[in-house]
Amino acid sequence: MGVGRSYCVALVGLNGYIVEVEADIGQTLPNFVILGLPDAALNEAKERIRSAAQNSGIPLSRRKITANLIPASLPKRGSGFDLAITMAVLRAADDIREIGGTVFIAELGLDGRLRPVRGILPAVMAAVQAGYPDVVVADANVEEASLVPGAKVRGYKTLARLAFDFGADPKELALDYNPVDIDVPEDDADNAPLMPDLCDVSGQGEARRALEVAAAGGHHMLLTGPPGAGKTMLAERLPGLLPDLADTAAMEVTAIHSLAAVQSTAVRLIRRPPFENPHHSATSAAIIGGGSGLPRPGAASRAHRGVLFLDEATIRQNTLRL
Length: 322
Hints:
Shape: elongated
Helix content: 25-40%
Number of strands: 13
Oligomer: single chain
CATH class of the largest domain: Alpha Beta
Strand content: 15-25%
Distance between the termini: 77 Å
């Protein structure tokens, strides 16, 4: 038995870093150790991996398993490392053939199913930019991962099928599904949501002119007036004056929304400038972003390349008394 290696991606905000996963099987009592600054969710991967491998017909070795995530000084968070650690351990036990430079990004269920993870788009972008275009993800993440130019994406539903394609011989393929490998169009104009149009507004000549000038020059705006004057109605129609996003800008916006998604669902390339309208009682963290451990984009980040509308904003003036 030697040292098995595979690759994954660690996200720090929107920046992704290639992580080399080393696995070694020792000769001592059974144990499973993960090194490299893992968080609580990543430490729990030990039980997920053992159960998933057992239920997929390719049980792990009963000896001591040590998984090292390189660089060790970079904090690792989340469950997206499950699959990469599993493949490295299987390679160390000679249960599968050489992995090469394939990047594995997926969470494992106890039954051996591959589950999607959040932020798959920026992770695949980082892998391609680092020179690792071959990526394996969960079936539910294939559509989103395929948006990255140059990425060779393969999607699987089960660990058993993935290990079988890499030379393993599972005892049973009860959860047998074919891999998914598809090309996704960059945009779908027919299914794009309809945006409010400025042509719906009657009158408001000066305000319409101000919106057009702001859209053309990328200026900020301050809308003042009594309730019911139409401030919100006009602000909601500002994104309709902006042009479609270019390829680079569309990837940036889509990556942010992929990271901010509450559920790990596939997203299409966002071509229209986003519009964010946080509630007037939203906290600073909700608007600016942040969070414990893994930062989450706030409304200001989600409005990147688009419009951030702060309705009912209060301007406070600080008076300096001498």
